[in-house]
Amino acid sequence: MLDGMTPEELRNCCLDMNGAYEDTPFPGNPGLVTCKVEGKVFAFVPQDAEPPTVSLKCDPELAVQLRAAHPAIAPGWHLDKRHWNTVTLDGSLPERMVRELIEDSYDLVVAGLPRAVRLRLDRG
User: Fold this and answer.
1) 28, 46, 56, 89 — which has fewest CB within 10 A?
2) E strand or H helix at 10
3) Which UniProt keywords apply (predicted)?
């Protein structure tokens, strides 16, 4: 399992981002946790997926390259496939890469926030 990365470690990695919090906004699917910053989702983490998965926002050009290079990275499941990838934590990707993908997703979402909010998050 990804050099030891457990679902809990995945969750903690997402929540370690500045200003990040988790939410369960889908009453019909309480097992789908979202990780958000300023009300914007940067990660979807299904709690019952086996092996664990996480869906992350990604630059469209990079998303295509990642999918071509790594079988564990697929177009975002039930998401805009141009901007989202679903990453399966089957042990084939280094933990560091998964952490970087989470950070990239967070950064893409933060980049779309108002300047004052971005500055506050940068200082936090």
Assistant:
1) 28
2) helix 7-15
3) DNA-binding
Model confidence over 20-58: pLDDT tens digits? 999 999 988 888 999 999 999 999 999 888 889 999 999
With beta carbons less than 8 A apart as the criterion, state whether 98 and 5 touch.
yes
Count of CA atoms in the C-beta half-sphere (13 A) of 46: 16
Amino acid at 50: E
Alpha helices in 19-94 (DSSP H): 60-69
The predicted pLDDT at position 2 comes to 40
* Structural domain harbouring 69: 2-123
Name the amino acid, one letter, at 8. Answer: E
CATH of the domain at 100: 3.90.1150.30
Q: How many CB atoms lie within 10 A of CB 6?
A: 12
> What gap in Å lies between CA 19 and CA 4, rounded to an integer?
26
What values do phi and psi take at 22, rounded to 5?
A: -105, 155
Question: How many domains does the chain contain in total?
Answer: 1
pLDDT tens for each residue of 93-114: 998 999 999 999 999 999 999 9
